[in-house]
Design a protein that fits this description.
It is a single chain. This protein has 1 helix and 5 strands; from the N terminus they run ββββαβ. It is α+β, with helices and mostly antiparallel strands. It has one domain. Strands 4-3-2-1-5 form a 5-stranded antiparallel beta sheet. Strand 1 and strand 2 form a beta hairpin. The longest helix has 15 residues. The radius of gyration is 12 Å and the shape is globular.
Amino acid sequence: MRFTISSGSGQTLAIGRLFIQTSETGQKLCFRSERGTLIEGGTIDPDGDLTEAGQELYRQFFVTWGVMGITMSSQFR
């Protein structure tokens, strides 16, 4: 599933995919753009809750693009 990340003004910042990255410290929610930018979110809770992982991913979007109020929309391809 593809995701489009847009600024509050409607500018497309990136198009890419969400995925789960597994490491020694646990599983992280991540985003990879079609241009190769990798953004790591937070660790997924053991019970599968994505709340904190998603919040950290959005914080990393801000760090990457310097834009608050972003929108993520999904689309099937």
